[in-house]
């Protein structure tokens, strides 16, 4: 049998009630009692009974998180950042992937709610189809969206300023001499996909450069390779391509180089996210860096303030991104992050 609260109280020379108060922190005890209990806990290796605590406090000490897919390096990075933030408060993370399916996403949310999670963090896979399940979950537990969000609001959101990020990328390649530009991204089923394309189109129109038709597929390396082949087959290459994420950009660079195109001499390429793929690209990828640690910290902080079925207007926190210039684009100014 493991060490119990009775053992801790006996070793500390205090009552069980005093030991319990010292451990829970809900009621104050004298500094001397707190120190004796802490010393007894350390010496005995006492681990509180999580189930009993959950029944007593009506909490489970767990947060559920649903992302579209953990195979995408960006989502892996944001999950790890959220988990680090939760560890600071002793909270555990239960992770699910929606597999980019609104139906699977709805089932994953129900699974987490059945496990009585204290709150949810979700990156909705579909800006429209995810609405019913996300709003239903938000009525039942505190919920914060991260990176992506559903149409019409209704739930708090923390993420990067997608339009500002793609504007940085487009302005960078245009300042580097591009007179014809193209965008390679994902089908417009998520808020990120829509905002990055619209931001690119507005920036290019404002600059007066020629804009080739966008190529829209998936946020994957495989789609980047295919998009590169489509550009090669078209018979005319743009001066620069802005990609909706790094996986697309890495695949595109690979495809262009296999086709005999020099990057960035013939075609400049810029990605979005700044995940591990970016520095492993050959040549290293210029990209827009998402402030993942800051996003995770804000999401966890906001989750602590949200209440289930909160009537107040949903909060939206857009964090500024940063352009990182490496070797797939032409450097044009000093003072840009390297």
TrEMBL record:
The gene is degA8. It comes from the Bacteria. Residues 3-57 form the HTH lacI-type domain. It comes from Nonomuraea coxensis DSM 45129. The keyword Kinase does not apply. InterPro entries: Cro/C1-type_HTH (IPR001387), HTH_LacI (IPR000843), LacI/GalR-like_sensor (IPR046335), Lambda_DNA-bd_dom_sf (IPR010982), Peripla_BP_I (IPR028082). Residues 2-40 form the HTH cro/C1-type domain. This is HTH-type transcriptional regulator DegA. PROSITE patterns: HTH_CROC1, HTH_LACI_1, HTH_LACI_2. Keywords: DNA-binding, Transcription, Transcription regulation.
